[in-house]
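In the design runs reported in the main text, the only information available to the sequence generator was the tokenized backbone. The following block is the verbatim input for one such run; it is reproduced so that readers can re-run the procedure and compare outputs position by position.
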């Protein structure tokens, strides 16, 4: 399952970069349900120990966003206002 969420993030990152002249998004907004899963997957992919704090993937900050439903993801350069 962890590889599935990473594949989805990588696909969305590629799509974002294609639409924005190669620029990477500053933030990857994910649902609260998937934030921990994504962070664990990034740790596993990069070979980090369990106790290492991970906050980004490929230069974009991973942000838990309560307004998103499970399965939703947004890539953006702005943090949404509440």
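Verbatim output:
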């Amino acid at each position: 399952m962890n590889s599935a969420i990473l594949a989805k993030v990588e696909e969305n990152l590629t799509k974002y970069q294609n639409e924005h002249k190669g620029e990477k998004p500053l933030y990857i907004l994910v649902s609260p349900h998937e934030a921990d899963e994504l962070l664990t997957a990034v740790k596993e992919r990069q070979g980090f120990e369990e106790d290492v704090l991970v906050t980004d993937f490929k230069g974009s900050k991973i942000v838990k966003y309560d307004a998103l439903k499970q399965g939703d993801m947004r890539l953006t350069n702005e943090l949404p206002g509440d």
